[in-house]
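ok trying this again, last paste got cut off
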Amino acid sequence: MLNGRYAQRRADELARLVPMDMGTAHEEASFFASDPGQAITYQIGKLQILRFLSDARLQHGERFNLRAFHDSLWINGNVPISLHRWEMLGPRDDVHTLDSAGGRLTL
């Protein structure tokens, strides 16, 4: 089975490169092999949050509070990062991009 061999190779790699036990590594590798879109979705979200964090640190300077940033993400829930950025920092650039796509975006 191709997916089984692929998942086993990836599990071996995860267990070797990441502090992760073999059972967890196998579960992770199997999951990402069965749903490859999840990995790219995770990575895109991570990059959006890192950009948001960087922008918040730059804009707030010495007043930046990591705990408050983190709490804001959790309190506001599972909404697009562009809306978090708009609420906390003010720029509408990402929101405008979503608005201009109109009905062309599908989820």
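PB: full thing came through this time. Residues 36-107 form one domain.
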